[in-house]
Amino acid sequence: MYHIFRIKSVVGALLAAFATTLAFPSALHAQEASHRHEHGNAGMLDEAELEPIVITAPFMETPLEVHVDAKAPQQPLPPNDGASFLKTIPGMSVVRKGGTSGDPMFRGMAASRLNILLDGGQILGGCGGRMDPPTAYIFPDAFDRVTLTKGPQSVRYGPGASAGTVRFERDPVYFFAPGWQANSAVTGASFGRHDVFLDAKAGSPFGYVQGIVTHARSGDYEDGDGKTVHSRYERHSATAILGWTPDENTSLQFSAVRSDARAAYADRGMDGSRFRRENHDLKFEKSMRDGILDKVEAQVYHNTIDHLMDNYHLRHNTGMAMASNPDRRTTGGRFALTFLPHENLEWVLGVDQQSNRHTGRSGGASGSTTYYRDQKRVEDARFAQLGLFSEIDWAFAQEDRLIAGLRADRWRAKDSRQRFNLGSGMMPNYRPNPSANARRTEHLYSGFVRYEHDFSFGTAYAGLGHSERAPDFWEVVKEAAGQDSTASLSVFDAIAPEKTTQLDLGLTWKSGPWKGFVSAFYGRIDDYILIQSNYTKPGLMSSTRAVTIARNIDATTWGGEAGIDYRFSPNWKGMASLAYVHGTNDTDGHALGQMPPLEGRLGLDWESGPWSAGALLRLAARQNRVAVHEGNIVGQDLGKTAGFGVFSLNGGYRWNRKTRVTFGIDNLFNKTYAEAISKSGALIQGYEQTTRVNEPGRAFWLKAQFALE
Ligand SMILES: [Cu+2]
Q: How many A from CA of 459 to the centre of ligand 1?
């Protein structure tokens, strides 16, 4: 059934695209859809820029922002989801759990410390065990560009975001004349990996239709020692967009997304056999060309996630068949006005809202008396947030800018859980939830101010930001991380919001053959929400029991990223980048858990006519600063780690920017290694258990991209 749906959707979309091609044969030379560039969107790639063909360490070209082409090939080849796509950005790491759906982390900060926006909307996963970070629902091929904003240096993209904000976006579309456009790519790689996507749009000055389908699958990969890792996956998505464009500066767009996936996990006793997402989004944008009001943006969205995890679909089950079926419904909206009261002053004023309800049910496999589908869904929590924000960008002198923002949020939560089962399997032990039906309201304030100065060769900046973040679902509700506080069975009203105050300093420059950036930060985090596993509490029947708790501590973090590019001849370019973060748990007087070690990348790229080649050496230092059993909702420290170096090669041939073939060998020397922050390997029948989930060994890949218009 699953396969039939998938094949039907892929074939249907391909046929639709083919039909579109036939319907507009004379449109071949029609004028290309134009892209309206927003202020500051330097990420749009320009052929003259000689961007690397295979992305290995995206550069920070403008203060605090890193832009990546969502469809460009990357090395190492990312496994189709949003987290792995971000991993090449210096400062980004991924907590590995299996083949896909890892958790992205920026400067050692994961989960809701890093806001992830999909086409302007915020989505939250359904899994209490964090199988599905927002990036698990991202199919990068379905987007055009990705932007990382570092630090608490913007307030217009939602609350929290103490470490940064990542936006996956599509370029605006406008057809000056009837025409069509299509993009496609096919990827094949080791371990039975193949990906395909098709993005086709057709339109006229009146409006357009766009359809995007993606499909990817991979078998289990092997680590450098040839050990098979329980990591196979299959992912697919379909997006339909209908746009009405009465003029070049106005658009009303409706989009519907449907996606699903299955993924094996190497770090736990269950796999994700369903990640079904349905999303509807209505967006309005109008840019005025004169007057004080410059732009109006309005968006509403609805998102449902239906997730199933079990121990019998994707693995050999040795015990009792168990399934858990959580789901989350999220609705949200955003309204923003941009004013230009003066030619040098831009002022954004807006409001955003988001509310979500989480429910769950669990039971056994089909045919059992406790089949999960026969159980009733029970709500365990609901959340609502309403925020008001205002940001200004003031160019007060030829070379000087002041950017500042303020944000206020009201956050409300309700704990709907009535009881906890402290027993297991055949021996349930129910206890009432001490915070059953409790409600919480928090008022949160964020703000920043930044000064930017242009030199003849670049830009320097200094910013101070403050962000207050409400605890998320995983921190206050879900048992997998933080059912308990130190004192109570429930942590729901025992955790204070986290408050980050951070200084961001940096420099970007370009001069002759040199290009470089430095971005440094120093942060104080009051009431950092620490997740601690293996915490001993008095037992219920036995003398003690080990639990996972959430508690507030104070922390200090500092570090940064730097990169340099040198073009030593028209054909050759060298690249180096560095990322480091140092975290201290000031309350307990030791290291802050789950901090990635010092990491560096060295690259050499060659280009001649349509041909290109590249070599990449990624080096990670050992991590001695650990706090065993301490970390975040995604994972906790397991112990010290050794350093490693991984060498990769790539090549390519291009006809133009969108039609090209790239290929590579990731981890050429078949090094066996694991990221310091990755999860421990679980005992899974038929697989060898490892201390951490190891990264893939040597892998070959080839990606062919086509553009038709
Ligand atoms: Cu799950």
A: 44
